[in-house]
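pinging the channel bc i need a second pair of eyes. not urgent but kinda urgent?? the chain im working w is below, pasted from the shared doc
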Amino acid sequence: MKNVILFLTFLVSIPYSLSQTRVVGTDYTSFRIEQENDTIDFVIADTVLNVKKPLLLFCQGSLPVPLFVDFGNHRIAPLQFGNFDLENMKKHYHVAVISMPKTPLVPKIEELSEQYFYIGNSGRRNPTDEFSLADYLENYVRRANTVIEFMMNEDYVDTSKIVVFGHSQGSRVAVALADDNEHVTHLGLSAYSYEPRMHEILRRIRVRAEKGEITWEEADSLQANRYAFYARVHNDDSLKARPHLTSWRSFSKSSLHELAGLKIPVYIVYGSEDIGCVNSDMIPLYFIEQGKMNYVVKRYPGLEHNFFPLVDGKPDYKNGEWKNVMNAFIEWSLGD
C-alpha cells in the first residue's frame, strides 16, 4: 500500500494526526485520521474541494470490503459507488465513505477473498481477527462521529445539512449515528431491518419449510442450532474465545426505539424480495404512534437486497436499480 498512496502527515489542534492526499489513479481524495488505538481512513468522491456543499456520508454494509483494490500495474479501482449515479450525487453533496475498521484503504487483490472482502495474508476464507474484534456497532458510530467532527471544520462543507445514508448493516449504523449526533439533519436507509440479525435467519428457515424445501422437523433442528449459537453469542466466555461473535452481540438489539424517536426526516427503501425487510411494512405504525410525519417508506417491487431484479430466483446483475433508488433519495433530500 505504501507504493500506492503517499500520506503527508501533520498535527492538528485535535487529539489525532491527519493526512490527506489523492488516491492515485482515481478521482477520490483520501483522508487518514490516526488515533491512539485506531486508524480511520475515509474518502470524498472528488479531488477539487473548493466548492461549498453539504456532506453525504454513506455507511456501507457488513464484511470488510475495502474502498479500493490494487489489481497491480498501477490499476486502482474503487469498490464503492459503482452502482450509483455518482456524478448526480456530487452535484449536490460532498460524498464520503469510511473504510471498514482494520481494513486497508487499497489492499492488493491477493489479499481479498472471492467475495472481495479483506482477509490479508492469512490464507483463510474469513475476515481477520482484528476486523472481527472491531466489527461492532458502537465502534462504527464512534468512527463516523470522528469523521463528521472533522468535516464540520472544513471550509468547503456546508454544515447546515449533514446527510447520512446507510445500506444493510450500514443502515443500523446510520440509525445509531443519527440518534447520537445532533448535526445529522437527514437520514436515508436501504435494506434496513430494525430487528436483531438472528430474526432474519430464523425467518428464512421458516420460509424454506413453508415452501416445502425442508420438513418442519428439519426446520426445528436448524432453528435449535441457531438458538444454541445465539446463546454462545451472549456468553462472555464464548465471546472471548471467538472474537467473530462480537459483531453478533452488538447487532442483537432492536434499533426501533432509536428510529421511531428521531425528529429529523427519514427515507427508507427496500426491495419486496428482501426477506430481511418484511418488517419495513410495520415501520409507519411506529412513526404514527410517535406523531412522526416527516418520513418516506418505499417498497421496490420485484427487487432483492441490493436492488437487483430476480430471474429464476437469482439476481440479474445486468439490470440493477441502484441508480434510480439513490437518485430518488437525493431528490427527496433536496426538497426537504
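so DSSP finds eleven helices and 14 strands in the chain. and Residues 1-14 have pLDDT under 50 and may be disordered. — does that match what u expected or am i reading it wrong
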